[in-house]
Amino acid sequence: MRVALAQVVTGRDLAGNLALVEDYARQAKAGGAELVVFPEAAMRAFGNSLLDIAEPLDGPWASHVRAVAAELGIVIVAGMFTPGTASDGSGVRKVRNTLLVTGPGVETSYDKIHLFDAFGFAESDTVTAGSEPVTFGLGGMTFGLATCYDIRFPDLFTENADRGAEVNIVCASWGSGPGKADQWKLLARARAADSTTVVLACGQGDPASQGLPVRGSAPTGVGHSVVVSPFGDVLAELDGGPGLLFAELDAGVVKEARAKLPVLANRHRF
Q1: Which of 5, 37, 44, 133 has its CA 20 to 30 A from that of 143?
Q2: 54-107 confidence digits (pLDDT tens)
Q3: Which of 145, 139, 190, 202 is nearest to 168 (CA)?
Q4: Which burial class, exposed, middle or buried, applies to 125 when counting CB atoms under 10 A from its CB (0-12, 13-18, 19+)?
Q5: Which active-site residues does the annotation give?
Q6: Mind listing the pLDDT tens digit for each residue in 199-233?
Q7: Rounded-to-integer distance, Cα 241 and Cα 206, Å
């Protein structure tokens, strides 16, 4: 199966971001991809208000993405924001950091479980955490979903593998800073090796690569989307700027890796 990672730099404007999704989806389809992955916050970049644009999965933004996927005959994974509430029952308005997955024969979503309360940013102030892992099937393979900070938590990736995932998709808007791009790649490689899955790690491009200013501590992307083998080898990587990365997936490669290195079968739960 041929897949694509669309490393884009989104902004505040919903229509402009939709246009980016449509443009890159068309490029991915033209390149032979059956699946195209967009970053977290494809709907609107972090550092902008989110409550005023959060919408349900049948709202106008998601419906437009769904229509593009249907027209092109491609599955799209894209980060958006859906309505949420405070977990303490107070009724405080928040959003959910959601991955929309839509296309021929596929319709699901994943709400980010591990919220980014680190490096001076408090995602939990405005976001309701998800609680359930999500997998989906496409072309005879099973894909698990994760979002950004989730990549620091191995259990989600091995749980996805336990549920049949041969591939783990990570959509991110990674925070910049000293060593952060290296951490991103290190973690993508580690999670692939932990779970003996292919990891498709798609991040927002670095706004600085487009001459755009970065405000405050909001995580707005560093680029370096990567495709990682089940042994933790980087198979392909982008730089900091926008781009489209193609990869070929083969379930047989995952099966072979698990036969040689059966970490999922050998692990203990304490």
Answers
A1: 44
A2: 999 999 999 999 999 999 999 999 999 999 987 666 667 899 999 999 999 999
A3: 145
A4: exposed
A5: 40, 112, 148
A6: 999 999 999 898 887 767 789 999 999 999 999 99
A7: 6
